[in-house]
Amino acid sequence: MESDDGMGSGDQQAQVIVVGAGPAGSAAALHLARAGVDVVLLEKGTFPRDKVCGDGLTPRGVQQLVRMGVDIDAPGWMRTKGMRWVCGGRQVHIDWPRSGSHPDFGLTRSRHDFDDILAQHAVAAGARLCLETKATAPLTDRAGRIVGVSTVAGADKQPKNFHAPVVIAADGASARTALAMGLERDRSRPMATAARRYYRSEARTHDPYLELWADLLCSRTGRDLPGYGWIFPLGDGRVNVGLGALPHRAHGSVDLRATMDRWLTRVPHHWDLREENADSPLRSAALPMGFNRRPQYRRGLLLVGDSAGMVSPWSGEGIVQAMEAGEVAAETVALALHRRAGPGREQALHQYVSEVNRRWGRYYRLGNTVADLVLARYGYRPLLGPRVMASPALVRTLARLLTHGSDAPSDDLIDTLVSGIVRMVPAPGRSARGLGARRR
């Protein structure tokens, strides 16, 4: 953390600085720019770039892309009809619902250029994008409030400071900006790990369903994987194959590579999911879940996406939450900037935490409990027993719960049931323990 000593000759000024041009940061920058806010979007890398991800979007994510103005009919996007769950020798198909406020289809696209598309939409809206610009430390005033960031830019790592009254941290699971401002991760909250690899597979690349396997076994212990495997079609001759695991502390870590190798011996030979058809190395990444960094606003800094641990504890989905939180943060900041600096603006910025609680607090609190008591201990198999798999109504209800299908008023019976279940969860408090506090 560095003290702000005023503007230097090479410094830049903005109304808002967004650190990180992933889905959360680009969404925030785009919506801020549309609101007429002067926003700088800092990205330490360049585009296109790779990112460990399942590359699949539920209809809720499609809705966010449409709101951002992304052309989802352009080449490179593949539509999906729903999900296929595989467990215990059974499989069921769950089509995306046709009712409610969301589209009735999902999408897949490689993260290789997904982030680039969103960043360029932010630029088109008026955001200033600075590539190869790594934020190294927050700049703070005498009261400890963030008023900018110091960076190093370009191949020669030239120092440059950026100043703004509000900073949005969207710098991913590393959360360097949040950590530098004293916002530590709540280690009682879930932290999953995912690994994925691309394969060339003509047999599966145009599959209209996202396939999830819930009965995989850990290579080392033989226990049920505390997570699931996926095979997502990309429509370009490839599929994205991966595993997500949320290991319980009593069971130790999971060897994802060996577990995937064991799993792929079970799939049909003609799917071509073999070493000679691999189109990438196996890569892994951490998934910060369940709002494991709080509060989401403090002293001029808002946290969005993985920086705030916004990955769903139910499913491991993170792109949707990142884009939604980016929009919520942008709306909060845009309104706050219409107030004079001081208590009034600070009160307005604190509304971001309230809105995050309102939208996702109960859902994540329930998800954290299920993750702790069931998913991290026994995996998804207990949720997908024979009775559930044999009941279309139970399967659709569980699918809607796992994917947070809708939180808007709906005449759909399953949406109403799921919303009722979530509303029965006590609302998170506004104390420091906040969302998903551990049970005593």
Automatic annotation (TrEMBL):
What would be one Pfam family of this protein? FAD_binding_3
Taking the record's annotation, the residue ranges forming a coiled coil are none
- Describe the location of the FAD-binding domain by residue ranges: 14-357
Which superkingdom is the protein from? Answer: Bacteria
NCBIfam families with a match to the protein in the record: GG-red-SF
This chain's protein is named Geranylgeranyl reductase family protein
